Amino acid sequence: MNLGIVGATGAVGVEIIKLIQKRNIKYDSLSLFASKRSVGKKFIINSIEYVVHELKEDVFNSLDYAIFSIGSSLSKKYIEIANLYGCVVIDNSSAFRMDPDVPLIIPEINANIIKKCDKIIANPNCSTIILNIVIAPIHKINPIKKIVVSTYQAASGAGLRAMEELKSQAESYCNNEEYDTRIFGRQYIWNAFSHNSSITENWYNEEEMKMVNETKKIMKDDNLKISATCVRIPVLRAHCESVSLTLENNIDIEKIYEVLKEAVGVKILDDRKNNIFPEPLIVSGKNDVYVGRIRKSLINKRTLELFISGDQLLKGAALNAIQIYEYLTYL
Amino acid sequence: MNLGIVGATGAVGVEIIKLIQKRNIKYDSLSLFASKRSVGKKFIINSIEYVVHELKEDVFNSLDYAIFSIGSSLSKKYIEIANLYGCVVIDNSSAFRMDPDVPLIIPEINANIIKKCDKIIANPNCSTIILNIVIAPIHKINPIKKIVVSTYQAASGAGLRAMEELKSQAESYCNNEEYDTRIFGRQYIWNAFSHNSSITENWYNEEEMKMVNETKKIMKDDNLKISATCVRIPVLRAHCESVSLTLENNIDIEKIYEVLKEAVGVKILDDRKNNIFPEPLIVSGKNDVYVGRIRKSLINKRTLELFISGDQLLKGAALNAIQIYEYLTYL
User: Fold this and answer.
1) What is the pLDDT of residues A286-312, one digit of tens each?
2) Is A174 a catalytic residue?
3) I need a surface site. Which of A228, B248, B327, B328 has the fewest CB within 10 A?
4) ipTM for this prediction
5) Residue B300 and residue A225: Cβ atoms within 8 Å?
């Protein structure tokens, strides 16, 4: 169990390193990799100093497992090499998610489909994970037929530099200075904008299509009707989602509460009296995905509405990947 | 045409005063009113100085028209008095919106239902206006059967002090000081939260029910299926809405574009190549409500998705009220 963290200095990589310590993750050796500009950075993990090395092809020779949190084109290149060396990869990028031979895993939902021979395990998109972990238990008691989701996404999904850009804009606002807009090309503080991924042929953006296609794959239902609108809001590290779910049968709201209360990785926060529901600052740093505003839709008896918030860097990325590693090494 | 502005020093009142000058609004006399603590404040309008007076019962004796932008309980009290004095009121509050005898007006849509004998004209909720001005022209060519909307609402809807609180939190963030949370009871910067209005019996909040009920009234369709989720995001003065509309017939996307292009008060911003769509900072200060991300839903052929943004203080409140005044005085 020689473990490598690829992209160790990125927003997700740093969270993975924290989780390795926090969850007392088992390994025989641990190695950290990143691109050239981060080589030499140091991390103290369980009182041992680890130096970040450059990601090169031959590093996989000595690794059994690697968790990748780098861009999808680099992932594609290096995962093939890692696999050739016999290294099993958990990949946070979108590179292999829709590959029919690659399992797309949220451990609470479908870890059971991982096979011992799998060499790549894909971590779903962050918004997809946050949605699916809440709706999967509902689907079991009353099959989901239709999903309409609108997201409220944080800067963290675009990486550390995006978070820094947003923070820097608070400083610029206070000092009446020009905004640094290198990442998003616009003022982000006091603003909201359609997700910065490219618009695809069907006029949905790539982020929306990830949510759509990955949810269908995770739910094993190509005929699922799902549509998404992905929007960035000036929040640092947790996403929210407003979800309208149409189910096969009439909603039994008591049963919905019951099943969500029992769901692993999900926490209900639905304090209607005090108006306290899931919000980014409540869920930041939390492992669970929070759900509230649980209510029967005004539209029809089979529709349920929810408001969800989850830490994009934790369950949306690093935590889910670490849970997959835990599952693999317990197999 | 003796005109009074009631609530002249509030977020909406100040915008009404700006519009009076900008649009060269006609009146014989203009008087400004507010609560005790704002008495004595001065405004220069068309080079003439106006002093803010205290709102008292007898002020309506000398007024023909008044535009109210104060809380709904005060509105209820003073509008009755104003009407007794023969003063016609345009009311920004929710006090009379659902009164079957009071027209609920977005001039571009239904100014024609105003009767000469009407003594109260209600201005719809800001989120309702921003939604309806975009969907009304679509409804004309392909009747709307179902609306699912999620909002991204600015601080401005809660007034000037809410906007100040949000701005002050940027300062506090930069200086690492404690946040002033008097208005919303929570950190607002870098956060998002379910709209701060009370949760009603059906578990929707009051803001959501305003959107639902007022839209039905404006569209004259009690059977319209509509559901809303209202959320505040850290933006200063423009709201956004993610809208899924199910129509009676299959979507002809060209026709939708055509009708939105011709719609008064609506502007299409749908630059898929450069990823530029409606966003709060683009629409702040603009009269038009912007619409983009216009696309056929992935769910079915009769569903259309849109992303809308409009200045909450302008078309969402002050501008709509001023347009009603213009209409009334041209009658």
Assistant:
1) 999 999 999 999 999 999 999 999 999
2) no
3) B248
4) 0.96
5) yes
